Amino acid sequence: MGFDMYIEHPPEHEEVAYRAASNAFHAAVRDRDALRLPSDHPSYTLSQARVEETYAAMEAVQTSYFRLNIWGMSEVRSVMEALGMLTHEVRPPSPDPRDYGTTTDELLAYSPDDESAPKPVRAFRTAVQAVVDAAAEHPSGIPAYKFSSNDGWLVTPAEIEAALGWWAIAPREIQTDIASRLDWWPEWIRYLRRARDGGGFRVW
């Protein structure tokens, strides 16, 4: 259980690069497993090192993705809250299928991208999309509710820019302390900057 975040418009080259890196990683895993040797055997150790190397390379090229487990997201919310990077707009209400003439069972019968779905189903999904895409016209940070569930919330470039503004004015000693306690925090800030320039990101 955790939170998966994806930049809306990833770099054009990323998908191809990630696919190649992923293939290299899985090939390294297959080569290691084919050895059928104990883990302390020198040949296995070398093969395992190759697996770790290709995994790191695969992770490095996927710059549009960031994952936090439940603890990590709790830390993000805590730190960003303390720095003023989060706002406290009320979470918009979720649409009720009955208001669109459909039911939960009918919704489950069609995949999200099924264009043959009945009009009520499509209308309901359009309403849901409008909710998860909602944003203030002049945000002062990222709404905290967007970091509280896996509903595909869109964190917009304007929201990110406002949040990064608060980070930029935080005292240097506080920034240093946060980075020392959370070694992944600098990469989180870099991810926010990439997302700001890539159409924002979704939280799943």
Can you put this structure into words, describing what you see?
- The protein is α+β, with helices and mostly antiparallel strands.
- It folds into 2 domains: 2-92 and 134-203, no CATH class; 97-132.
- The protein has 8 helices and 6 strands; from the N terminus they run E-H-H-E-H-E-H-H-E-E-H-H-H-E.
- It has helices at 14-35, 42-61, 70-83, 104-108, 119-132, 157-168, 172-181, 185-196, and strands at residues 2-7, 65-69, 86-87, 142-143, 153-155, 201-203.
- The strands form 2 sheets. It has a 4-stranded antiparallel sheet with strand order 2-1-6-5. The chain has a two-stranded parallel ribbon with strand order 3-4.
- Helix 1 (14-35) runs antiparallel to helix 2.
- The termini are close together.
What layout of secondary structure does this protein have?
Elements: E1 2-7, H1 14-35, H2 42-61, E2 65-69, H3 70-83, E3 86-87, H4 104-108, H5 119-132, E4 142-143, E5 153-155, H6 157-168, H7 172-181, H8 185-196, E6 201-203
Parallel strand pairs: 3-4
Antiparallel strand pairs: 1-2, 1-6, 5-6
Helix pairs in contact: 1-2, 6-8
The end-to-end distance, rounded to whole angstroms, is: 11 Å
Please, what is the average pLDDT? 96
User: What is the rounded Rg?
Assistant: 21 Å
Q: Determine the strand fraction and express it as a percent band.
A: 5-15%
Shape: globular
Kindly state the number of beta strands: 6
Whole-number total of structural domains: 2
Tally of DSSP helical segments:
8
How does the major sheet shape up?
4 strands, antiparallel
Reading the helices and strands in chain order gives EHHEHEHHEEHHHE
Low-pLDDT residue spans: none
The secondary-structure class comes to alpha+beta
Question: Widest sheet: strand order?
Answer: 2-1-6-5
Helical percent range? 40-55%
- Oligomeric state of the chains in view: single chain
